[in-house]
Design brief:
With 234 residues, the protein is α+β, with helices and mostly antiparallel strands. It has 2 domains: 100 residues, Alpha-Beta Plaits, CATH 3.30.70; 124 residues, Alpha-Beta Plaits. Helices cover 25% and strands 28% of the residues. It has 5 helices and 10 strands. The two termini are 32 Å apart.
């Protein structure tokens, strides 16, 4: 089952793991039975394929949820409507259900493109920033430094906890739209650009924004189609 939802307000500060718990609890209260994995330590089968950065609002979140359906459950359209009504009633303020789609697909949809919107205070929306955006897009490479989780490194590599990444391939477009920066970013198997990196490259502090950073227009596709799409974009 694919569930699209919106995250606003104070709820934007909860992390990926906490958001999963929000839906687990909402399903339990709504009487929706989630499937669990097999083995000695079963886990509920639900996931967020594109974890949302903490502090960022979103108009296009996706939850993949596997539920246990009884023999007397209604057909697809009625079932989708039933799940939506029951789940919506149990979600906290700031989490709005947008759609529910029943699907038999075994694979999880994968994101390949996403848009971020940064709304600026009028005094910072000047020609200097526009020039900065222009020069950013003219660059052939944009190297940023990222910290590496030491626990994921071999013992002999833990001295170097910084890696350099070229994030230029992840920048599809950056546009200026009525005091807002609209940034379209690619997502590949190698990763994507991070929100904090976007702010640093444009030299924008959170205090310069008139509203929380918003993520929207996430483009999804099935895993088998994603590789072909990425090859075509090259």
């Amino acid at each position: 089952m694919l569930i699209k939802f919106r995250v606003r307000g104070a709820l934007r500060y909860i992390c990926h793991a906490e958001m999963l718990k929000v839906f687990q609890r909402a399903c339990a209260r709504a009487g929706i039975k989630i499937q669990h994995s097999q083995g000695f330590n079963p886990h509920p089968r639900l996931s967020l394929p594109l974890p949302r950065p903490v502090g960022v609002e979103s108009d296009d979140e996706l939850l993949c949820l596997r539920v246990e359906r009884g023999q007397n459950e209604p057909q697809a359209l009625e079932y989708e409507s039933l799940i939506r009504d029951k789940l919506s009633a149990q979600l906290p303020d700031g989490c709005e259900l947008l759609s529910v789609e029943a699907t038999e697909a075994k694979s999880t949809p994968q994101p390949f493109c996403v848009t971020y919107i940064l709304s600026l205070r009028p005094e910072y929306a000047d020609d200097r920033l526009k020039e900065k955006i222009k020069h950013l897009l003219e660059r052939k490479d944009i190297i940023v430094e990222r910290k590496i989780d030491a626990e994921k490194l071999k013992f002999e590599d833990r001295i170097s906890k910084i890696k350099k990444v070229d994030v230029r391939p992840f920048l599809e477009s950056v546009e200026w739209d009525n005091r807002s920066i609209v940034m379209k970013c690619n997502i590949t198997y190698a990763g994507s650009i991070r929100v904090d990196e976007i702010l640093k490259l444009l030299e924008i502090d959170v205090e310069k924004l008139t509203a929380p950073i918003k993520r929207t227009n996430v483009q999804w596709q099935e895993p088998e189609n994603r590789r072909q799409n990425l090859e075509d974009r090259r």
